[in-house]
Structure formats: structure tokens, C-alpha cells
Design goal:
Layout lengths: L1 E2 L23 H5 L2 H4 L17 E2 L7 E8 L11 H7 L3 E7 L4 E7 L13 H18 L3 E7 L4 E7 L2 H13 L5 H6 L8 H7 L5 E6 L6 H13 L1 E8 L1 H4 L6 E5 L4 E5 L3 H25 L2 E6 L4 H8 L3 E2 L1
Parallel strand pairs: 5-6, 5-8, 8-9, 9-12
Antiparallel strand pairs: 1-10, 2-13, 3-4, 6-7, 10-11
Length: about 325
């Protein structure tokens, strides 16, 4: 659905998106993002470990995998003692670990009906798909393994982490060809889609980097609990996609909206209504911020009226310590 009369004085610079891709993405368009993805800072490595050097970011970094057991030496971390080998041999032994060379990067995308809306820029679902493709290209460029999940009222797609360009192309084909892009199928589906975070929790390995891209409408207590569990052992980033009209109603006036088949008019002359509307959005945003703050999750707002590439570049960038 699109707003036909634009709010005056809005100086937000939208991303340059071809008109035919403002409401639906294409495989070619998502493949074309591979150059821009090289500028995304997913190469942080173990940012809180010694291997990371003098950089910090939102991410903990790669996981650690078991390498070998050897006799204990003075100075070894006693928390790494292998008690079974120690008991069997009668001499203390310690486990050695190495940093995983390939970190799993999981990109979870919401294609439920509320994501197919915009008054500025492109549909929220288009922004989500473009962000997912950018993150996918960046992950592969930096040597990580890519996995993905796309869910809607009609269908749930799950792609296990894989290495290489073929993993990105496979993901992109599903992003562009998902049944949710068919408006008739979308409207005929069940009105509620259960959150798929429990399934994500089952496939995410410790040390994974997980991106969830959604407007997070209807996030329930069970989904919040799943997010909390994910954040205990992995880096989790919520990319909160929203449209300017969801954040604030336009000034006093009459506005016509269309979904391409039918029109409707909204009247924003009641200041109390406008204030209540804005408070509901702010309450939703604050709830997400509080959830992320409690659980060490990184929250990155992303407007349909902005440039998703620039949003990711600025939001995920590293800073010197």
C-alpha cells in the first residue's frame, strides 16, 4: 500500500531503487548488490578475544572449536582442564581450542503481510530482502558460512549454513521467489504466522552471527525467550524495518492510500489521534530497545525512506579503541 500524497518538508533521502523493484525484488537486483556488500564490516573476527587486535564492534566474533588435549603446563587456564583424561591418566591435562575459521552467519527474514507496506522508498519486505542480500554477500566475502531463514504466513524456508558464492545465489533465489510476493496467495493465507525463532535456536551454533530482519510486530513472550536463548551463545542483531507513516501520522489533512486495487482516505485532523498513534510506535520501539539492552542484542533501526546500504555500513562499522 502506498501513500499518494507526500508529507511536505520531508528531507529524508531515500535509497535509489528502480521503480519496478520498490514493491518486489528480483534475482538480478539482489545479485547486483555484491559490490556494495564489500564495504560492510562483518570481518570483525573475535572482537573480544586477543586475535581481534585493536578493534571493537557489536559482535563477539567467531566461536572456538576443540583442537587437542595435552599435559597441563603452568599458566594454563584451569577452566580448560580435561577432567576425564586427568582421571584416566592420573596427571592433569588441558584442552586446547582454536578459533573457527568459518563463522556461521544466519540471516532470518520476515515476509509476513505487514512487511508488504510502504509510503516512502520501498516495501518493508523489499528493504528486508536487500538487507539480507547485502549481509549474505558480505558474509561470504569475509570467509564465513551463510545460512538463512525466510518465513511468512504461507511458507517457512530454512537453509543450512554453507560456504561460497553458491550459498548466496541459492539464498537470493529464495528471497526473490518466495510465495509471499504473490499478493493473492498472501491475502488468502492464515492471518497469523507463528514466530520461527525456536527453529532458528535449534540450528544456530555457538559463536554464530545472527541477523533478524523484521518490523517485529506481534513479538510474543515465547519469541522473546527464544531471542534471549540465542543471545547467550551467539551475536544477535535485530534490523528493525519501519515506514515513516508507522512512526508518525502526517500533519492535519486528508490523505488517500492505495494497495493497487482499492483506495482509502485517512483524516489526520485530530491531534489527540496523531499523538496516540505516535506513542504506540514509540512504545513498540522502546520495548525492542529494552529487550535488546537486557540480553546484549544489537538493535539497528532501518527506515524504508532511507538507504539500506548506508544504514548497514554506519550501524555495523568498527571503531578504534
Amino acid at each position: 500500500m502506498s501513500l499518494l500524497r507526500r508529507r511536505k518538508g520531508d528531507d529524508t533521502a531515500p535509497e535509489t531503487v528502480p521503480a519496478d523493484e520498490a514493491v518486489r525484488v528480483s534475482v538480478e537486483g539482489l545479485i547486483g548488490l555484491h559490490q556494495a556488500a564489500r564495504l560492510l564490516p562483518l570481518r570483525a573476527g573475535a572482537v573480544r578475544a586477543r586475535q581481534a587486535g585493536s578493534y571493537v564492534s557489536a559482535f563477539k566474533g567467531r566461536g572456538m572449536e576443540f583442537d587437542e588435549v595435552r599435559p597441563y603446563l603452568p599458566g594454563d587456564d584451569v577452566r580448560s582442564l580435561d577432567w576425564r583424561v586427568t582421571a584416566r591418566t592420573g596427571k592433569p591435562h588441558t584442552k586446547l581450542f582454536r578459533e573457527e575459521r568459518e563463522r556461521p552467519v544466519l540471516v532470518w527474514v520476515d515476509y509476513r503481510r505487514p512487511m508488504f507496506f510502504a509510503t516512502r522508498g520501498a516495501y518493508k519486505a523489499v528493504v528486508a530482502a536487500r538487507a539480507a542480500a547485502l549481509l549474505a554477500w558480505s558474509a561470504i566475502a569475509h570467509g564465513d558460512r551463510l545460512g538463512g531463514m525466510v518465513f511468512s504466513e504461507q511458507d517457512h524456508l530454512e537453509l543450512r549454513p554453507r560456504q561460497g558464492k553458491s550459498a548466496v545465489l541459492h539464498f537470493i533465489r529464495h528471497l526473490a521467489g518466495h510465495p509471499a510476493w504473490d499478493a493473492e496467495k498472501r491475502e488468502s493465507a492464515d492471518s497469523e504466522a507463528p514466530w520461527s525463532l525456536a527453529r532458528l535456536h535449534r540450528v544456530a551454533r555457538p559463536g554464530s552471527l545472527i541477523f533478524l530482519i523484521s518490523d517485529f510486530r506481534g513479538l510474543d513472550a515465547r519469541a522473546e525467550a527464544n531471542l534471549k536463548d540465542l543471545a547467550r551463545h551467539s551475536d544477535v542483531v535485530l534490523l528493525f524495518v519501519h515506514d515513516p507513516l508507522e512512526k508518525r501520522l502526517p500533519p492535519d489533512g486528508s490523505y488517500r492510500l492505495s494497495n493497487g486495487k482499492s483506495d482509502m482516505t485517512i483524516d489526520t485532523g485530530d491531534s489527540g489521534l496523531r499523538n496516540d498513534y505516535q506513542r504506540r510506535f514509540l512504545a513498540h520501539e522502546e520495548r525492542l530497545r529494552a529487550l535488546c539492552s537486557r540480553n546484549g542484542i544489537f538493535l539497528l533501526p532501518c527506515s524504508t525512506a532511507g538507504d539500506v546500504t548506508l544504514t548497514l555500513q554506519q550501524g555495523l562499522r568498527l571503531t578504534r579503541v
